[in-house]
Amino acid sequence: MPTADLERTPPWSWREASTRLAFLTGLWLLLTGADAGSWVIGGPAVLLATLLSLRLRSPVAWRWRPAGLLRFVPYFLWHSLRGGLDVTRRALHPRLPIAPALVYHTLRLPPGPSRVFLANTINLLPGTLSAELQDSRLTVHMLDAALVNVMELQRLETRVADLFAVSLE
Amino acid sequence: MADFQFGYALFLLLTVAIGLVRVGRGPTAGDRMLAAQLFGTSGVAILLLLGRAMQQPALWDVALVFAVLAAVTAVAFVQRVAGRAESKPEGGADGS
Amino acid sequence: MAPDDWLTLVCLLAAAPFFLAGSIGLLRFPDLYCRLHALTKADNIGLGLVVLALLWQVTSWSEALKLLLIWLLVLLAGATVAHLIARNALRQGQKPWERP
Fold first, then answer.
1. What's the domain count of chain A?
2. DSSP state, A110?
3. Cβ separation of B64 and A132 shorter than 8 Å?
């Protein structure tokens, strides 16, 4: 994957800045319970956080889809519940039924935040733990080699691609 | 209800204590770092329950700080260990 | 007890095995990688159920959102921490345990 093809982040716009300002203001409201006196600190803090977040934007352009998020959340909750149940059963089982192995998965997602998001997400899914992410190769520690399920990883990739509005290779 | 929540917080404290046995035994530094993860989840759960049972909303803010600190601690740990590996080339980092 | 209190009780009881398994897994699993599986996955579901239990007790929207925000932060932090610790161990050359 030639990184030169990547779309660079365009310079920030007033629209983007005001979205971030609104989001951080909402966060402050939530954390302080809308205490009017807290704005003495909150006002400057929110302003500085907005400026800092604009400065530290990802160098690679990316976006996400609200509809993709709505589809992703139930999928993620269900599979992380399965992940919790699976590891709970194995940890409490008298014979400790595990057969760990490292597997290597070649990602079809383009470089950028979607890959990092996938690597983080699989840590909460049944039997998978991301141990290394290098270029398009993801090293996964499997709790049970018998569970190695390429289909499941590919399904997750499709979901993440939907969330980040990117296409798979 | 509050009594039950106190009892439950005590149960969680017990599971943290069990987990701390592993932190004490190690053997690797990574095993010891699991303490951060332990307090990041069970510790946060305890604070949330106590905040509710004792009617102390500030404890929820403490829980929030715990959650953030768990992440910062792990980053600091990895930075420190990675820095060490660099100053000692034969220390096993495989050129990545 | 009010119906909400019963729901809280049920959620808390459901969370208990997850927390217990997270800690037992820490002791029983043979290496760091397996222990990370136990702690990350089981405890996060446990915390999710505790948050759900407390959601039945909240008196305002901002309290509910704050609870969910805390859980989201822990999920994010937990997944990142697990990856960093595993990556660090792998780079140091720790071989994962295999069933003999």
1. 2
2. P
3. no
- Over chain A (169 residues), the average pLDDT of each successive run of 10 is 56 83 90 81 92 81 85 92 93 91 89 88 90 90 81 88 87
Are A134 and B64 an interchain contact pair (Cβ–Cβ within 8 Å)? no
Residue B31 touches chain A, beta carbons under 8 Å: no
Distance from CA of C4 to the nearest CA of A (A): 23
pLDDT, tens digit, for every residue of C41-90?
999 999 999 999 999 999 888 889 999 999 998 998 888 889 999 998 99
**Average predicted confidence (pLDDT) for chain A:** 86
| Residues 20-79 (A) with a CB less than 8 A from some CB of B | 31
Strand partners, A60: A8
A107: left (phi over 0), alpha (psi -120 to 50) or beta: beta
Least Cα distance to C82 among A120, B65, A23, A3 occurs for A120
Residues A27 and A71 in one domain: no
Its ipTM equals 0.90
CB contact under 8 Å between C70 and B67, yes or no, is: yes
Whether B48 is in a domain gets the answer: yes
- How far away is chain C from the Cα of B6, in angstroms, using its nearest Cα? 12
Q: State whether the Cα torsion C85-A151-C97-A132 is positive or negative.
A: negative
Query: Same domain for A159 and A112?
Result: yes
Chain C hits for A117, CB-CB cut-off 8 Å, are none
